[in-house]
Amino acid sequence: MSNVTQMMAGQSPLPLYVQIRDNLRRQILDGSYQVHERLPSENEMMNTFGVSRITIRQALRDLHNEGLVFSAQGKGTFVSKPKAVQNVQRLEGFGEAMAAQGYEASARVLSIQQMKAPKAVAAALDLQPGDEVVEVKRVRYLNRSPVCIDNSYFPMDIGKQMFSLDLSGDIFPMLENLFGIPLGGADIGLDAVLADAETQQHLNLKTGEAILRVERLTHSQEGRPIDFEYLCYRGDSFKYQFRIDRK
């Protein structure tokens, strides 16, 4: 029995607008509806699902709030470009965060090399001037669209183990499960900068476009700094989400 038939038959305990919202969300996330594709009109969905206009609007309102769709006056409702939303209340990798939201996340390695630590990297990782690190540079993809350039730096005892590994997924689980390094917390900084030529090329940006740069220093549970990153996101593809309480 199809999802639509189940809804019309009343076989789910969930409110109708929730069932319709979840049905549309699933079709958006699995690619049945493409980016910028127009969704059926309210009248068409009323007929398809056998529900009232207010029920359809409740479902669409939730999808609007999630950033999955947008409306154009007089033209209808369209699928938004996927936007990565990462909650900073919990330390997690890009892939971990995106998988929880139903997105497909992957990475392509641009380079991996041993190098003298740049001054800022050495300071962050608590290394001496002249010490070497391993730099891993990757493009991160969300639903197969490039959204981020990730430059990660590791102390030699950790980084040298990465040359023979598959780095197409998150590195955090690798550090914990393969290297046996429990992670503690991370210090995060945000700023906006102009994309350089390489970033423009890999993220399909125009000259002069700004990007969101995230500077993240991750520590082990013992407090050792083990992973220093520059994460450069397309401005239209990423949002950090905070919750701040007034004590």
TrEMBL record:
InterPro entries according to UniProt = Bact_HTH_transcr_reg, Chorismate_lyase_/UTRA_dom_sf, Tscrpt_reg_HTH_GntR, UTRA, WH-like_DNA-bd_sf, WH_DNA-bd_sf
Q: Which GO terms describe its biological process?
A: negative regulation of DNA-templated transcription
- Transcription regulation keyword on record: yes
Q: Name one Pfam family in it.
A: UTRA
Record bears the keyword Secreted: no
The HTH gntR-type domain extends over: 14-82
Q: Which UniProt keywords apply?
A: DNA-binding, Transcription, Transcription regulation
User: From the record, what ranges are coiled-coil?
Assistant: none
Q: Name one GO molecular function term.
A: DNA binding
Q: Which PANTHER family match?
A: MANNOSYL-D-GLYCERATE TRANSPORT/METABOLISM SYSTEM REPRESSOR MNGR-RELATED (PTHR44846), MANNOSYL-D-GLYCERATE TRANSPORT_METABOLISM SYSTEM REPRESSOR MNGR-RELATED (PTHR44846:SF1)
Q: What is this protein called?
A: GntR family transcriptional regulator
